[in-house]
Amino acid sequence: MGIADDLRALLSSEQVSTNRSVLEQHSRDESYHTPVLPDVVVYPRSTEDVVQVVRYASVRGIPVVPFGVGSGLEGHVVPVKRGISLDMMQMQRILEIRPKDFLVRVQPGVTRKRLNDQLRRYGLFFSVDPGADASLGGMTATNASGTTAVRYGTMKDNVRALTVVLASGEVIRTGSFAAKSSSGYNLTPLFVGSEGTLGIFTEITLRLFGIPEATVAGRAEFADIQHCGNAAVALITAGIPITRVELVDAPFIEAVNAFKQTHYAEVPTLFLEFSGSRESVEADSRMAQEILSDEGCRDLQFESDEHARNQLWEARHSSAYAFQHQHPGCGLLSTDVCVPLSELPGAITNAKRLIDEMKIPGAIVGHVGDGNFHVSVAVDPADADALRRIEQFNEQLVFHALRVGGTCTGEHGVGLGKRKYQEAEHGSSIQMMRGIKEFLDPGHILNPGKLIDEG
Amino acid sequence: MGIADDLRALLSSEQVSTNRSVLEQHSRDESYHTPVLPDVVVYPRSTEDVVQVVRYASVRGIPVVPFGVGSGLEGHVVPVKRGISLDMMQMQRILEIRPKDFLVRVQPGVTRKRLNDQLRRYGLFFSVDPGADASLGGMTATNASGTTAVRYGTMKDNVRALTVVLASGEVIRTGSFAAKSSSGYNLTPLFVGSEGTLGIFTEITLRLFGIPEATVAGRAEFADIQHCGNAAVALITAGIPITRVELVDAPFIEAVNAFKQTHYAEVPTLFLEFSGSRESVEADSRMAQEILSDEGCRDLQFESDEHARNQLWEARHSSAYAFQHQHPGCGLLSTDVCVPLSELPGAITNAKRLIDEMKIPGAIVGHVGDGNFHVSVAVDPADADALRRIEQFNEQLVFHALRVGGTCTGEHGVGLGKRKYQEAEHGSSIQMMRGIKEFLDPGHILNPGKLIDEG
């Protein structure tokens, strides 16, 4: 009997697949990393199902790789050692909405858009917005963030409690419904961002926010990317409680115009959002206007109508897809450094210079309020020379970020592509990370080969 | 040669003391827990000094208990197994202020008031305010919070990076200056709140905020504590971005009036603060006024003048001292449950009922915006019967909080007094906590007998 038959006997036959196209779907994410087929795809429906699968895999030393919607950008879900791809998307129940506590408890297969559809009637929303309609399990596993983190924080700031199946098959609960606690060790943030290497989440309790009374979005155009970066830093240091501030370089605007038939000026642009009470939004956007024109903004347009705002953010969010559309047959490599805000203009200027010098087919986009920016680069996986050059480029960005006190990944995670930077970034604390991994997963069955795992 | 002589040879003679009154100072904190004298008090001046002491202690299995200003409320610094009390207060340098990054890097012996004095010239402040002028090392060790956590978060939310000396004597750095990261495992929040049991902090990087343009404080009086609690919950659920909302029960107001010669009405009161731009503060306090009168507020007074505001918060902060002043010779036991906001009115009503039924000489004060409240109880340590009754009372509050999804300690920490609740609160995740402790401190030399350590 093979693994698939064993698992069919443990769960049910419709929860287990070895269909070729299903295996292929689970061999990759949206990145340039080389796909690897799992041996089998399993669809758990409950914590107990996950326990069964993990216990089975643990005894036999079979890798278990959790899978959400596959929208990751660093190969986290690629089953490099084959084994079981654990597709969490049938665990998609919203278990409990606690409007007065600003909390919701979900299964990991709920996607953020579906959650927000359900929350709207309560006047609440879940804030983390990485662009893709990712699963909340995947977002927890990578400590995702995105455009709204500058105001509402990352997943680490918004995951209140977890139910986790450990490699031993044991189920633990971390955190509580309380807004704060000094009891025991803080285990929840250790699991957030652990990329499936320490345990498998089966329930996630998330913090919610009230939908603001008023929201205004804006676009500010600049002559060059330096002025654009400086203006973003000036907005933040002035203390304006901005909801989003996104830098989009000219090549991205060109790609969006071609892809979405829009007519934005093809220059470096800041996409902005202010929200709060009507009075505060008015005051904030007035103050922003003054700062932006001091910083050389050439044109500034505000949109308060919901449709126009959605169109504007749709343009921002589609920029990566639009860019990829211009390069058919190519995969996407997205750099992801995050630097202290004071170092952002320098880091962006450095990236721009390297793009030119190294002839990188890339464009810059960034969550600049957090000091986080991406260079999206189209990669032909068959072109080894190009791939090597692009990886050298990424390495230069990463070592620049580390020199100025930053990190190799602000939000995409380590996965396969940033393992090589972990020693340089974390120094001797890497031994402590390895020790925690060894203690929790001595058999290296949980997403082997990712983050710092050598398994 | 004894421990003290060894340590004098390792460091310098003026960094080591066995003076009786120095040992007594380091035998206790502000709580009712029984003092225990350390064998020796050591004053490190650098990370290297800490490494020397820890290496020495590790080889010989001597306990090392970090000590700050001794303002803790749960006996964390009591050296229950004697050994070395490591007084961190000579490591009191502010190492680096990065105004554009809203960050500061400090040694652990810097106190929060001194830090804020230095930050004022930059228009910045460090937000966490537990009342006492605690050391930042101690605040990190207990995951302290206090009155402003409802707006700015707890220590866990505001510690960006740490330098930690592990039990092995190894020095690790966690986190970075970047506002967010998905690189490696999140070790920083694991150390925050670890109460000196996992490592000793020698550098702490903290997040800062800009001093708001305008601040208004207020006092809202109610006929009974139920209305007071309901009003606090109503303010939060209305989404008003309040900076502080503190419930102070009538007995505390009486104690403050006697202690500070003030003349506040001796009824359950909410102490409030709003801050932001002038416009937003005005809008917020107007909206709060409407909600408070709907909720039965009898009298509401706002103060925007800085002196009057300071006086008001001074009254709030001195309430515990004022209360203790009324009970000479007694220690203070402060309960510290934190419950989901929707459960707060029920939890406070329950506490009030138990105070009456069990004849507890206690009064309620709370950071009610977070669902966290304290019953301060005067305890005569010589009266074993009274102590037993008060501990039974605390136990009832804790088990009520756990039943409704809360925690036994919102901000004071576990220390000695709440170890007995750790199994009930954390269930099977306690094994993971013990495993992390074993891995990092196999000899149980770091603050033995605290949190979950059995050493």
From TrEMBL, chains A, B:
<dbReference type="InterPro" id="IPR006094">
    <property type="entry name" value="Oxid_FAD_bind_N"/>
</dbReference>
<dbReference type="Pfam" id="PF02913">
    <property type="entry name" value="FAD-oxidase_C"/>
</dbReference>
<dbReference type="InterPro" id="IPR016164">
    <property type="entry name" value="FAD-linked_Oxase-like_C"/>
</dbReference>
<dbReference type="InterPro" id="IPR016171">
    <property type="entry name" value="Vanillyl_alc_oxidase_C-sub2"/>
</dbReference>
<feature type="domain" description="FAD-binding PCMH-type">
    <location>
        <begin position="34"/>
        <end position="211"/>
    </location>
</feature>
<keyword id="KW-0274">FAD</keyword>
<dbReference type="Pfam" id="PF01565">
    <property type="entry name" value="FAD_binding_4"/>
</dbReference>
<dbReference type="InterPro" id="IPR004113">
    <property type="entry name" value="FAD-bd_oxidored_4_C"/>
</dbReference>
<dbReference type="InterPro" id="IPR016169">
    <property type="entry name" value="FAD-bd_PCMH_sub2"/>
</dbReference>
<comment type="similarity">
    <text>Belongs to the FAD-binding oxidoreductase/transferase type 4 family.</text>
</comment>
<dbReference type="InterPro" id="IPR036318">
    <property type="entry name" value="FAD-bd_PCMH-like_sf"/>
</dbReference>
<keyword id="KW-0285">Flavoprotein</keyword>
<dbReference type="InterPro" id="IPR016166">
    <property type="entry name" value="FAD-bd_PCMH"/>
</dbReference>
<protein>
    <recommendedName>
        <fullName>D-lactate dehydrogenase (cytochrome)</fullName>
        <ecNumber>1.1.2.4</ecNumber>
    </recommendedName>
</protein>
<dbReference type="GO" id="GO:0004458">
    <property type="term" value="F:D-lactate dehydrogenase (cytochrome) activity"/>
</dbReference>
<keyword id="KW-0560">Oxidoreductase</keyword>
<keyword id="KW-0809">Transit peptide</keyword>
